[in-house]
Amino acid sequence: MNKLSVFFAQFKKRGGIEVVFSAFGTKLISLIVSIMIARTLSTEDFGLISYALMIIIPLIPLSGLGMDFILLRYGALTEFKSNLSIYTLKHGTLYSFLLICLIFILADVIAVEHKDSAFFIKLTSFLLFWIS
């Protein structure tokens, strides 16, 4: 029991409570926005956006090709933190941009069954840039 209380004391000391509430707040706001969007859009438009998101969301791990994880892993271990952060920012942005360009080129091919969704696929592909 003592180890558990020490763990929670250190968790609180390092700002863990704020992180938990921040994550909870983000999820709550996301839920509210999703409900508002679902009520605002027509059924057909909501379906097209959902279809586009189901194509883009599996590509999120490819955005930036893991450059953010390289910075997280090796940033604390090296004395060249600023060089590493510039390197990962440049290359991660480049890789995300190339992935978005590829999606723009292939959007009409991907949306064979739902021709109207090509626009939404191109629009939601920018999520890959903002997430990386």
TrEMBL record:
Cell compartment(s), UniProt: Membrane
Bilayer disposition of the protein: Multi-pass membrane protein
This protein's UniProt keywords: Membrane, Transmembrane, Transmembrane helix
Transmembrane stretches, start-end: 20-41, 48-72, 92-112
Keyword flag Iron: no
ATP-binding in keyword set: no
Predominant place of localization: membrane
InterPro entries: Polysacc_synth
Pfam families named among the record's database cross-references: Polysacc_synt (PF01943)
Protein name: Oligosaccharide flippase family protein
Species whose genome carries this gene: Psychrosphaera aquimarina
